[in-house]
Design goal:
CATH topology of the largest domain in chain B: Rossmann fold
Oligomer: heterodimer
Strand order of the largest sheet of chain A: 3-2-1-4-16
Shape of chain A: globular
Strand content of chain A: 15-25%
Number of strands of chain A: 16
Largest sheet of chain B: 7 strands, mixed
Number of helices of chain A: 19
Number of domains of chain A: 3
Helix content of chain B: 25-40%
CATH class of the largest domain in chain B: Alpha Beta
Number of helices of chain B: 9
CATH superfamily of the largest domain in chain A: FAD/NAD(P)-binding domain
Largest sheet of chain A: 5 strands, parallel
Strand content of chain B: 25-35%
CATH superfamily of the largest domain in chain B: Nucleotide-binding domain of ferredoxin-NADP reductase (FNR) module
Chain lengths: 479, 280
Amino acid sequence: MAIQPKKHDMPVQDAKQRAKNFNEVALGYTDEIAVAEAARCLNCKNRPCVEGCPVNIRIPDFITKVKHGDFEGAYDIISESSSLPAVCGRVCPQETQCESKCTLGIKFEPVGIGRLERFVADYHNSNFTGETTVPQSNGHRVAVVGSGPSGLACAGDLAKKGYKVTIFEALHLAGGVLVYGIPEFRLPKEIVAKEVDGLRKLGVDVQTNVVIGKTLTVDELFGMGYEAVFIGSGAGLPRFMGIPGESLKGVYSANEFLTRSNLMKAYSGHSKTPIMHAKRVAVVGGGNVAMDAARTALRLGAEKVYIVYRRSMEEIPARREEVEHARDEGIQFEILRNPVEILGYNNPENKRDPANGFVKGIKLIKCELGEPDARGRRRPVEIPDSEYVMDVDCVIMSIGTSPNPLIKNTTEGLVVNSHGGIVVEEATGKTSKEGVYAGGDAVTGAATVILAMGAGKTAARAIDEYISRKNKKGEQAAE
Amino acid sequence: MYKIVRKRVLNPTVTMMDIDAPLVAAKALAGQFIILRVNDDSERIPLTVAGYDRVKGTVRIIFQVVGESTMSLNDKQEGDFICDFVGPLGRPTETAGIKKVCIVGGGVGCAIALPVAQRFKELGAEVHSIIGFRNKDLVILEDEFKACSDKLTIVTDDGSYGTKGVVTMPLKQDIESGERYDLVMAIGPVIMMKFVVETTRPYNIPTTVSMNPIMIDGTGMCGGCRLTVGGKTKFACVDGPDFNGFEVDFDEAMLRSTMYADFEKREREEYCNLFKKEVR
């Protein structure tokens, strides 16, 4: 049988329709499509895809199970390496990871590994009826700070080993960026809630409304009897550009805009948290968060949404699928443009005009690509005298974050780098402070869900070794 | 869930509550704030800590009933629960080296000014308090201020109680009559804090203001509470809420605080109508 050169298409909601609702865009493979897509895998000997996966899922093995219709078997294989398959199958940048290495991809389109992962996880979530077995307790307690991808992964792995784990979450809802950042149409919150429930079933205690660094400090956690602490507190304060007009009404950070819409449910229309329903929106930045903000603005009723990005489409850092979905929905890409000023409305005749102080436009300057920077990306160079004004009533800054200072400022002996990220030993997640481990955006700065999850798993292994070793030593000393 | 262990109506629009929150009560210091959510669909609202009892494990909040969220909070009674209560957030008021301080409070801001005054008193500083209200009916916490102040001046806009006028008048008089304050601490409406700063600036008296911008997470994630201080972007939730008054861009802060004025008005009206229906 000849190999089908293209990936099986992902069934999606119609672009026109979905631009007006918050339901999930990608609908997922059916059993038949999944089996057919799995059959495209060559099951090649050197398995490059496994190397391309940050957590080294045994990809060809799970795909073989799918091919034979053993979806639960496939799930078991993925579970060995991943704590959040339903999440990662949706939000991983597969095109730069596993799928970029796929042997089939040399001649044709690579196997749709991400889509298959998602299919397997969704199948398990809606069909699995077995009971979760609560592991035998080993009597040791570990504290996990933050309930985002790294914290959930770390807590899950430790709980499975018999540790009594408490997750401390600053917000009122567990899930971190999965609930406040990534929108419903890309990652339904039901899936995140299921993951958190799964941890609770394993005996993990989730304490919301506790800010480590404020309500309790890391040192106090040790005093409370926790033998190790994992810090997965995520990225921090949003960055702004420092251009005039950023304090005008109608200028948001992407974090604020998305938090209002996602966590506070402003998108649902019957939330008590307000959000601006702007007509013309400029989102500054080219990452996944920028795509999420732009598509959220569109769904909230914007007529025109622009992505303003200073490099070209080649360099845009967002997942390819998000860029394509955004385009299909009608988001306009203003590439090779950099904002120089945000303009506000001001009625000189009437100081009490309610429109005063709101955004009315954004001044952009055209750019061209120059020499590559330290990371090999070509640097944008502004073209003199090329400024022009675009009419918008809302600007969303999505240009990254700088680390949150709360834990650093209250934890003696915790070394951070010049950017404020926590310094760790890469192979273990071990920090400069004994018994303290860290991972995810708190270490790396803004990165991906899968990298954070991987870091959480790595730290869980290291914490298990640390506590086992310490107790062995204790026993020897007692003898 | 967090239990309301005590509720007291201070004046027709201002209510005091003690909330059972032992972890917050153990750590709270004057100048810090908490964030609460009344019900599962409510907003997160920041309120500055108005007091705490480390033994009982309670935190005191005092709030003005202004919008939908504070209305629904005010509907709760002793023994009821609120959904979320997190803190203490922000940095406590800096008290080091202050021997003589003037606390200036305006309206419901006095609720926040009180624990600051008490803290300075506790640390042995000489405390002068100037508190201002629109009229006699709105005066709150007079006895409490008396107890912790070496000198207390009360002003009302209409002269129905204390001296007629605004807080900056007695402040200016005191300074001109030779009072030497190490610090003036202003807590109240932004416009009041702006004018306190304008009063102290010519005399170069260090002046701290407590800012209360719109906030969501309160932990340094969303950036909604940003202010321009000394020409730089600062976040009230992690860098404040106290700032050097001489450096704060008050006009910008006032403008930003009205971002959702329309929405708030609509919500308030809806809530009131709902209430009217229930009464009938």
